[in-house]
Amino acid sequence: MIQRIQSVFLFLLALAMISVVFLPIWSKLDPASGQELVLTATKLTYAHADAGMSVPTSTYAIAALALLSAVVALFEIFQYRNRFLQLKLGMLNLLLIAATLGACFYYSGVGEKMLNIKMPGTYEAGFYLPTVALLLNLLANRFIRRDEQLVRSMDRLR
């Protein structure tokens, strides 16, 4: 059923992963020159590009992984009759979210090399949302397992 607590967790997970696409993930500011490098889910680019700066780097892998994770979570909500499939989709979603975090780390490392100053970049809200999504995924899987155990215990009583 859609009103179960794990459905709420999965819906919030989908919202978090969709938000990753629209929020900045990482940024780095060079105070001396005023250059700012910003990583979003679709590109790694200078905020105020001057002539001679490098071309924006495409980061569509982050957006694709985040949107795929959101779609899997929304599909998982409606598979409430098959809890075993829900658990498998939850494990797939765990891998997709981890891959999203890995891609964010990779492209922030690329950004560190593009703007070569000693100060490290700062992670923005778009980076922390996949971590929240991981927590929501784990909670949803826990409640799905609990439902499965309840159904099995009721079958024993019959």
TrEMBL record:
InterPro entries per record: DUF4293
Gene source species: Hymenobacter aquaticus
Taxon lineage: Bacteria, Pseudomonadati, Bacteroidota, Cytophagia, Cytophagales
Membrane-spanning ranges: 7-26, 60-78, 90-109, 125-144
UniProt keyword annotations, A-Z: Membrane, Transmembrane, Transmembrane helix
Source domain of life: Bacteria
UniProt name for this protein: DUF4293 family protein
